Amino acid sequence: xxxxxxxxxxxxxxxxxxxxxxxxxxxxxxxxxxxxxxxxxxxxxxxxxxxxxxxxxxxxxxxxxxxxxxxxxxxxxxxxxxxxxxxxxxxxxxxxxxxxxxxxxxxxxxxxxxxxxxxxxxxxxxxxxxxxxxxxxxxxxxxxxxxxxxxxxxxxxxxxxxxxxxxxxxxxxxxxxxxxxxxxxxxxxxxxxxxxxxxxxxxxxxxxxxxxxxxxxxxxxxxxxxxxxxxxxxxxxxxxxxxxxxxxxxxxxxxxxxxxxxxxxxxxxxxxxxxxxxxx
Length: 280
Known about the structure:
It is a single chain. By secondary structure, this protein is of the alpha+beta class. It folds into two domains: 6-145, Beta Barrel (Elongation Factor Tu (Ef-tu), domain 3), CATH 2.40.30.10; 152-269, Rossmann fold, CATH 3.40.50.80. The chain is built from five helices and 17 strands. Strands 7-4-10-2-3-9-8 form a seven-stranded antiparallel beta sheet. Strand 12, helix 3 and strand 13 form a beta-alpha-beta unit.
């Protein structure tokens, strides 16, 4: 496909460069079917989607997001309209959707994996906890991906359980000689999952215990222990609860001196706010 070839070329151009950059994709709307539902650790539920539309899905890098579309409060499923290379979402009323990271995409298998954090009161979480194989779902996106070259000396990753799917995908796709640090906050060892990082990337699990999600400073304290040798270029990526990232952002920007072209800090969620998403 012409669109796929053009996207791949744009991705390759950034990969060959010196800095990370977001590459836009044609935004699709896929009708998919639930194939499998499998627990991953104590806090994640992996849903595998399939169907012919998976072949039209664009996926090139670990940091990609899609929107799952749900019926509104009145039970009516409203879908965005295709508009050129994008989607028109309307506003009267707007389709109900929730954003999630792509965990795995396989054109060969015709499958797409998304890991859901299971928690009470969440629209998507409650759907994931009760859905059965054969259920139809509509998925929009991804609108693009942040492409990170392999040319940095070190990589610093930090996030809570909501960032774990993207971090796991990134770690397993890194060149095996990559070096750096990965800090992951979870409730306890029961929420840890198997990872496949390069030998040179130190992975540290941070257990917050009885503290509520989005209330600890564990990520900030862990990141502040990082010491970067003089002269080494670092790419920093952090995601999770927006408030908990303030101190992380300050350390990355001011103490490590890493600017926006060499980092991405994304608030995936915010306590008390529905469907929050804010990139730095």
